[in-house]
Structure formats: C-alpha cells, structure tokens
C-alpha cells in the first residue's frame, strides 16, 4: 500500500470523483484500497459527511481522516463535480445548468426559487427520453442514456455550490426541495433514482427529507409500487388528459398503462393523506384538453385520491405543435377543480426566457453507434448525419 504524504498531488487523469457517491459506493471504493471492512465503513461515513454535508472539494479539509489515507485517496480520486457547459440565470431568478456528464452526454437541471426562502431543484434522471409526449421538447430528443446515481446527486452538488449553501443544514436554505421533473422518465431508471434519493435524504449528508423529494412519472404504472416502497418520495403524475383516447395520443405511454391501470397504482401508493397528496400535472393545451367538461371529468377521475393539481400553462418551444390555453379558460378550469375541494394552483411559468420551464429542456446530445464511438476514439472525423436526430435549432454543444 503506497502512502506517501502528498496531499496536493494531482490525481491521475483517469481517476474518478468520489463526490455524489452513495455511502455503500464510498465504502466499496475505500475497501478497494485494501482498508479492512470495519474501518472502511467508518471512513466512508466520515467521507460522506465531508462530501455531502460540508461540500468539501479538497481532501486536505478532512482533518479527522489520517494523513496517510488522505494521501492515498488523493492519489486515486478527485472530488470534482461534472463540468458545467453552460449556466444561465433568468430574469425571474430561475437558474439552469447544462452539465457535461461525459463528452457528448449533457443534461440539464433547473433551480426554481420560491417566494418564501425555499426553492426546488429540478433534476434530470436521463439524458434524452423514450416517451415522446407530444407537447414536450425533451421528448424530441432520443434517449442517450440513463444517468448514474452519482450523476443525479452531482446536480445537487452543483446547485449548492452555486447557491453557496454548505453545510447542508444551513438554516433557511434556498434549496429545500428536489423534484425529478427534468429530462427523462425516472421510473425507467429506478435503481439509480432510488440510490440517489438515499444519498440526498441522508441526514448525515445532504439532509433533504424524503417528503421534500418528489418523483414525477408519465405513468409507468407497474413501477409505482416499487417507487413508494424503495424511496418514500412524494409522487407526481403527468396526467394531461382524462380520456384514454386523448391520452394515448399526447402521452403515448398510456397505450401501455391506461388510466384505469394508472389509477389503481396511484390509489395504492403508500401513506397518502391530505398532508401527503399526489401531485397531478396538467398542461393546458388550447382546444385540446382544456374544456370545462374535461375539468369535471378530472374531478370524477380523482375521486378518493388525496390530490393537488398543478395546472401548467403550455410552454412553447421551437416548432411545438400546440398553443397555450387562454388565461380565462385556465382560470375556469382551475375553478371547477377547486370547487370540488382540490387545490389547483396555476403554475406561473418560470425561466421561460432561458428555456428552463417545464418541458423545454433538451440537450444536443445524441446516442452514438458503437462504430461512431470507435471512430471518435481513434480521432477520425464523425459520420455526420448518420446517427443524427439532431435538430437544426440554434443550440450549441
Ligand atoms: N417523465 C417524467 C418527468 C418529466 S416532468 C414525467 O413525465 O412526469 C416534466 C413535466 O413537464 C411533465 O409533467 C411534463 O408532462 C411537463 N411538460 C412537458 N412539456 C411541457 C410543456 N411544453 N409545457 C408545460 N409542461 C410541459
């Protein structure tokens, strides 16, 4: 075991970051350095506190870990976050990061400050998406890949760095909630999402309580029980239509799990109560799903489910095939739902000017074929157009 005392030594280029790893993953890394199991567990706990409670980026901060082990760690690992390709701040205070998880794999997260001191970070679980919801910009980007648990957690690290909110338990912090409402379908990446939630909610680390974490799904009904059992997170459903024919069209996963299927899974979600409601997201599409009759059908559909309905004015994107409902129509819809006893706030669009609002997230990353990746590794020019579903929109990588 090499233990020279050089805390400033730069890690080898191929070394990986420990920041954002779960407690178990940290422990495995330490064991791989030939530290015996029992001390490895203790060291992992110390590391977790430095990394996720204090947000340390230097091994030299970690004064309760022996110099020898710190030296060994710094030779093997680093504590960097993934690179930020772009950081934008909206006139309304919303912030968006385009994060390069690896070359060619970029995803976005968005911080939405609330009026009170709290705020939510909207994280991505995948780069691209397989779902093809008709009104969603992310849906026009093919799935590139699932994000790892570490990559999901690193989105919180990046936001906390920018907000200067270390240690994690600082009083009255702005980043108080997490919503899995960024790019991707979280329930198609449930193992990594569940591991990320364990890390985010760890009281010795990031300390974001499970009830402050909401996972939104377009309706992967058969994974909803597992989500409840494994994560204890709050559930959000992207509903958007109250009839199967329309939902089949605009949220095509409905063809696999229809409304009846979906509502059976929702009703069985653990611990639902008026204090712990299911959030329903309903995008207001002019002349498509916004009639008073549909509002009344929504109320019927929700019968017996403790629910809150977020009415989302449709956020346009280049070449999007819909328009946002008129304000009066949205208010009328909201009134009908409210009169039936369900809170139904109309979401003020946030961060539209920086393309950070619901459904506007999209990166230019594309899934490359194995042949393309080999060619790139050899330094050959890429086969332009071959794998492309890239749009000609004015985004840059
Ligand atoms: N795949 C998950 C997570 C994405 S959440 C899900 O579907 O729930 C993003 C939310 O924004 C979803 O409710 C989505 O339906 C909604 N959305 C997508 N495009 C939108 C748009 N253009 N305007 C408003 N909301 C949109």
Topology:
Elements: E1 16-17, H1 23-31, H2 37-53, H3 67-76, E2 77-78, E3 83-89, E4 95-102, E5 105-113, E6 119-122, E7 126-127, E8 145-146, H4 149-163, E9 177-180, H5 190-201, E10 213-217, H6 224-231, E11 234-238, H7 244-250, H8 259-267, E12 278-284, H9 292-301, E13 307-313, H10 327-339, H11 370-377
Parallel strand pairs: 1-2, 6-9, 9-10, 10-11, 11-12, 12-13
Antiparallel strand pairs: 3-4, 4-5, 5-6, 7-8
Bound molecules: S-adenosyl-L-homocysteine (SAH).
Describe this entry's structure for a reader:
It is globular and about 70 Å long. The longest helix is centred in the N-terminal third of the chain and has 17 residues. It has 397 residues and is an alpha/beta fold. The two termini are 42 Å apart. The N terminus and C terminus are likely disordered. It folds into 2 domains: 63 residues, DNA polymerase, domain 1 (Orthogonal Bundle), CATH 1.10.150; 272 residues, Aldolase class I (TIM Barrel, Alpha-Beta Barrel), CATH 3.20.20. It binds S-adenosyl-L-homocysteine. S-adenosyl-L-homocysteine (SAH) binds next to β10 and β12.
Oligomer: single chain
Mean pLDDT: 89
Low-pLDDT segments, ≥5 res: 1-5, 381-397
Strand content: 15-25%
Radius of gyration: 22 Å
Helix-strand category = alpha/beta
* Order of H and E elements: EHHHEEEEEEEHEHEHEHHEHEHH
The fold-level CATH name of the largest domain is TIM Barrel
Number of strands: 13
Q: Name the ligand types.
A: S-adenosyl-L-homocysteine
Main sheet summary? 9 strands, mixed
Number of domains: 2
Approximate shape: globular
Give the CATH class of the largest domain: Alpha Beta
Question: CATH homologous superfamily of the largest domain?
Answer: Aldolase class I
Task: Give me the number of helical elements.
Answer: 11
């Amino acid at each position: 075991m090499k233990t020279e005392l050089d805390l400033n030594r730069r890690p080898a280029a191929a070394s990986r970051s420990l920041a954002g790893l779960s407690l178990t993953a940290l422990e495995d890394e330490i064991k791989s350095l030939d530290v015996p199991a029992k001390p490895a567990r203790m060291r992992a706990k110390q590391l977790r506190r430095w990394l996720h409670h204090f947000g340390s980026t230097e091994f030299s901060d970690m004064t309760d870990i022996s110099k020898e082990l710190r030296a060994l760690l710094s030779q093997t690992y680093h504590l960097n976050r993934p690179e930020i390709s772009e950081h934008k701040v909206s006139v309304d205070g919303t912030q968006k990061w385009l994060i390069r998880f690896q070359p060619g794999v970029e995803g976005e997260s968005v911080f939405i400050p609330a009026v009170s001191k709290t705020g939510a970070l909207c994280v991505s679980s995948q780069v691209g998406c397989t779902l093809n919801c008709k009104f969603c910009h992310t849906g026009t980007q093919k799935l590139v890949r699932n994000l790892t648990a570490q990559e999901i957690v690193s989105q919180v690290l990046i936001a906390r760095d920018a907000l200067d909110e270390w240690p994690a338990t600082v009083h009255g912090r702005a980043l108080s909630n997490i919503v899995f409402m960024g790019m991707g379908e979280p329930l198609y990446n449930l193992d990594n999402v569940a591991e990320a939630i364990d890390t985010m909610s760890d009281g010795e680390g990031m300390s974001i309580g499970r009830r402050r974490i909401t996972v939104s799904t377009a309706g992967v009904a058969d994974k909803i029980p597992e989500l409840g059992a494994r994560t204890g997170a709050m559930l959000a459903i992207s509903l958007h239509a109250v009839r199967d024919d329309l939902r089949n069209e605009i949220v095509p996963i409905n063809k696999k799990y229809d409304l009846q299927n979906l509502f059976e899974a929702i009703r069985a979600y653990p611990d639902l109560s008026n204090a712990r409601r299911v959030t329903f997201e309903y995008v207001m599409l002019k002349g498509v799903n916004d009639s008073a009759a549909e509002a009344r059908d929504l109320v019927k559909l929700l019968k017996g489910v403790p629910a809150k309905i977020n009415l989302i004015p449709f956020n346009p994107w280049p070449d999007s095939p819909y328009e946002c409902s008129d304000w009066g129509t949205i208010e009328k819809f909201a009134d009908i739902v409210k009169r039936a006893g369900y809170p139904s706030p109309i979401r003020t669009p946030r961060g539209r000017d920086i393309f950070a609002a619901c459904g506007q997230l999209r990166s230019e990353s594309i899934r490359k074929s194995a042949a393309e990746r080999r060619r790139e590794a050899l330094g050959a020019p890429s086969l332009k157009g071959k794998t492309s579903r890239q749009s000609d929109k004015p985004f840059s990588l």
